[in-house]
């Protein structure tokens, strides 16, 4: 089951966003993310949060069939984290997070990257505009479906990433290592429409950007 979670940040449209919307089985919104979902023509099954930023009238949302789950304002988890947990409880086999990067609060964007790293039971991808990012925990491999000349950036999280081997990237790695804190893996380039990244050990963040959708 593919579940889309709308966070409260702004969302740039793009082919990745449209592909996710077209394959959604269920929609969950975190607080103000409900407005973004409705703007894209989707009605959230559940809206969860402390509702500190949600401006839509609750009776109107209930009339649309939304279940409202109100949580305390002072809590350990963010609204987005609770929405992701709810997606797992609803049987998600993959999750797309929309509205998790843009917005005025940089700390929320960084926090959402940490959430990507914390969920290991199902694949989770954060999509915004021309870019999609996800996390791989080694040992594992992942494929990048795009177009030749697209950009792919690799960032170690937590610590170093070792045993790193790439296929169909301009700057190849063979059993290589990316050191935590170094941006060495930024802005690699796909040489074919399909690339592959193999991780021996460590936690790797991948950011795939469709160059054709960049406004350069």
Structural class: alpha/beta
Helical amount among residues, as a percent range? 10-25%
Helix/strand order, N-terminal first: EHEHEHEHEHEEEEEEEE
Distance between the termini: 36 Å
Regions with little confidence, pLDDT below 50 for 5+ residues = none
Protein name: Thiamine diphosphokinase
Keywords: ATP-binding, Kinase, Nucleotide-binding, Transferase
Pfam families: TPK_B1_binding (PF04265), TPK_catalytic (PF04263)
EC number: 2.7.6.2
What can you see in these coordinates?
Pfam families: TPK_B1_binding, TPK_catalytic. This is Thiamine diphosphokinase. Keywords: ATP-binding, Kinase, Nucleotide-binding, Transferase. The protein is an alpha/beta fold and 216 residues long. Helix content is 21%, strand content 36%. The protein is built from five helices and 13 strands. Strand 1, helix 1 and strand 2 form a beta-alpha-beta unit. The mean pLDDT is 93.
Briefly summarize what is shown.
The chain is 21% helix and 36% strand.
Write the layout of secondary structure elements.
Elements: E1 2-6, H1 15-22, E2 26-30, H2 33-39, E3 46-49, H3 58-63, E4 67-70, H4 79-89, E5 94-98, H5 106-118, E6 124-128, E7 131-137, E8 140-145, E9 151-167, E10 176-178, E11 188-189, E12 194-199, E13 201-209
Parallel strand pairs: 1-2, 1-5, 2-3, 3-4, 5-6
Antiparallel strand pairs: 6-7, 7-13, 8-12, 9-10, 9-11, 9-12, 9-13
Pick out its properties.
ATP-binding; transferase; Thiamin_PyroPKinase_B1-bd; 5 helices; alpha/beta; Thiamine diphosphokinase; 13-stranded mixed β-sheet; nucleotide-binding; 216 residues
């Amino acid at each position: 089951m593919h579940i889309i979670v709308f966070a409260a940040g702004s969302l740039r449209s793009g082919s990745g966003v449209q592909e996710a919307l077209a394959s959604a089985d269920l929609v969950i919104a975190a607080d103000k993310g409900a407005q973004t979902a409705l703007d894209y023509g989707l009605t959230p099954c559940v809206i969860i949060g402390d509702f500190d930023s949600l401006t839509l009238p609750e009776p109107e949302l209930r009339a649309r069939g939304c279940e409202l789950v109100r949580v305390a304002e002072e809590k350990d988890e963010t609204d987005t984290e609770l929405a992701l947990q709810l997606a797992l409880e609803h049987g998600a086999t993959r999750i797309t997070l929309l509205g998790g990067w843009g917005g005025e609060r940089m700390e929320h964007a960084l926090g959402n990257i940490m959430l990507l790293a914390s969920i290991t039971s199902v694949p989770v991808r954060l999509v915004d505009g021309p870019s999609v990012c996800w996390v791989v925990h080694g040992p594992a491999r992942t494929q990048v479906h795009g177009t030749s000349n697209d950009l792919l950036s690799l960032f170690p999280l937590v610590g170093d990433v070792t045993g790193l081997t790439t296929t169909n990237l301009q700057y190849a790695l063979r059993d290589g290592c990316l050191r935590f804190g170094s941006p060495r893996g930024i802005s690699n380039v796909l040489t074919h429409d399909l690339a592959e990244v193999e991780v021996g050990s460590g936690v790797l963040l991948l950011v795939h950007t469709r160059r054709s959708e960049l406004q350069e």
